[in-house]
């Protein structure tokens, strides 16, 4: 079986290389011609562990410029193209619409093929894609991934699998994940729209849990019990049904997934006259927590030392500052007149020019 991947950014490339290692013949395409040329030469610059090694070892991995080549040659076609957020909070699926048009132009070659959407969409989008491709005998599925930047390879091999859609390719899709994970994965199947809701709702739950933990911590800190925040959250986490994961005090949520999915679910619920007030409140509390962090660190820095960060990306070992509370705190402290040092300069070119990108050469107050 030959598997195609349209869109080989960080996620798409990791998935493609794991497929190749699992024994599949893989063909990929991407809109960035320079990226495709580098892949052909097995060149990659990434901070994702394991990617360079798998690319270098790959034997049945073909990179092409044209999506139509992927559609024509592959039996199953995955796509991981970008779906940026709109001002409403919904996702812009224009890149997916373009791929649908590419598939239509290959009518004679797409008989009995599966098209799996792996990027985040709005609930109902895949149902529309299925309607658009109904006359082309192409089955549409929704199968997003549950990964974190910096651990994509690991997450694809160990996390749960969600498949929306029920057709002749369902068994093949399940088998793909069996081979990638090398064990029996936790697979959940349902129709496409419910699966799209699952993707958004899971991240909404995580934003709520993170914000709850930080709010509890803020209350304790204000009451003079900052040193017992971990004990309190640990006790809460020990209750059956709660658990410790994501129930920690620290920076609020950020990055390219959690904030956007929270807003997207709110936009989706509003279509039915439902005001998802939890999501709105969570975003508000998350922003308030950033103000608290600035106030708290300034108060703790009694000697008015320069501040120093190990990194200002939204999490360690990434190069993403999108919605990063670490970076926002850095800017807040700069605006208050503090000198700021940052050790990791992976995002230097897109950050505030006032930041000093080096190891501190004086006494500093460390953050993170």
Q: How would you briefly describe this protein structure?
A:
The protein has 13 helices and eleven strands. It folds into three domains: 2-190, NAD(P)-binding Rossmann-like Domain (Rossmann fold, 3-Layer(aba) Sandwich), CATH 3.40.50; 191-284, N-(1-d-carboxylethyl)-l-norvaline Dehydrogenase, domain 2; 301-368, no CATH class. The protein is an alpha/beta fold and 368 residues long.
How would you describe this protein?
- By secondary structure, the chain is α/β, with parallel strands linked by helices.
- The chain has three domains: 2-190, Rossmann fold (3-Layer(aba) Sandwich), CATH 3.40.50.720; 191-284, N-(1-d-carboxylethyl)-l-norvaline Dehydrogenase, domain 2; 301-368, no CATH class.
- The protein is 43% helix and 12% strand.
- The protein has helices at 10-21, 33-40, 51-57, 67-73, 94-104, 125-132, 152-158, 170-181, 192-222, 229-237, 258-270, 277-300, 325-335; strands at 2-6, 25-29, 61-64, 76-79, 113-117, 138-142, 161-164, 187-190, 307-309, 340-342, 365-367.
- Helix 9 (192-222) crosses helix 11 and helix 11 runs antiparallel to helix 12.
- The longest helix is centred in the middle third of the chain and has 31 residues, at 192-222.
- The termini are far apart.
- The mean pLDDT is 95.
Helix and strand arrangement:
Elements lengths: L1 E5 L3 H12 L3 E5 L3 H8 L10 H7 L3 E4 L2 H7 L2 E4 L14 H11 L8 E5 L7 H8 L5 E5 L9 H7 L2 E4 L5 H12 L5 E4 L1 H31 L6 H9 L20 H13 L6 H24 L6 E3 L15 H11 L4 E3 L22 E3 L1
Parallel strand pairs: 1-2, 1-4, 2-3, 4-5, 5-6, 7-8, 9-10, 9-11
Helix pairs in contact: 9-10, 9-11, 9-12, 11-12, 12-13
